[in-house]
Structure formats: structure tokens, C-alpha cells
Amino acid sequence: MVTIAQIENTLEKADFSAKQSRAIAEAIELAQRKTQEEVETNLRSWMENRFVTKEEFHKEIGSLRAELIKWMFIFWIGQIAAFVAIVKFLK
Predict the structure, then answer these.
(1) Measured between alpha carbons, how far is 79 from 74 in angstroms, rounded to an integer?
(2) pTM reported for the whole predicted model
(3) Domain-wise residue ranges, the chain
(4) 11 secondary structure, DSSP code
């Protein structure tokens, strides 16, 4: 990360006054701090939403199991219907 002194020195070499260099350097530092705070806030928010509790996990697994069982029965009914149709066709 660039320091205020480095920014000031660079600006003074470009013929900015000491007062102008200091003001610009402080503005850049303020922007860097604000950006860092926003990144930390967003990361913290993402981490909180990323992980689930044990109860939420078990609830989700339960709903997935129920959905799986539902589709298994639909598949079995289709298989039985196909088998009955083949048996009737062969008689």
C-alpha cells in the first residue's frame, strides 16, 4: 500500500504545492480506507450467509430426501405401468 508521504513526494516532484500534495494524499488515503472497510463488510456479510447452522442443514437434507422419495415413487409407478402394458401385449 502506498503511504501518504510517497504520494506527497510524487506530487511535489510534479510541481504541486505542499498544501495541494497533502490534500490529494489525504483524499487518496481516505478512499483507500473506505474501500477497505467496504471490502471487509462485504466479506463478513458473505461469510455469514455462506455457512449454515446444523439445524438448517438437517432441514434442507430432510426436504431433499422427501423430494427424492417422491420422484422414486413416480419412477416406480411408470415402471409398473410399462411392465403391465408389456404383459398385456404378450398375452
Answers:
(1) 9
(2) 0.46
(3) 1-51, 53-91
(4) H
Residue with cell 498544501: 19
How many angstroms separate the CA atoms of 1 and 3, rounded? 6
Helix H or strand E encompassing 78: helix 54-90
C-beta of residue 13 within 8 angstroms of C-beta of residue 7: no
| Cα distance between residue 7 and residue 64, in whole Å | 57
Task: Say how far apart CA 40 and CA 32 lie, in whole Å.
Answer: 12
Q: What is the pLDDT of residues 43-61, one digit of tens each?
A: 888 887 777 778 888 898 9
Distance CA 48, CA 50 (A): 6
Residue 8 one-letter amino acid = E
Spatial CB neighbours of 46, under 8 Å, sequence gap ≥ 6: none
Burial class (CB in 10 A: 0-12, 13-18, 19+), 1: exposed
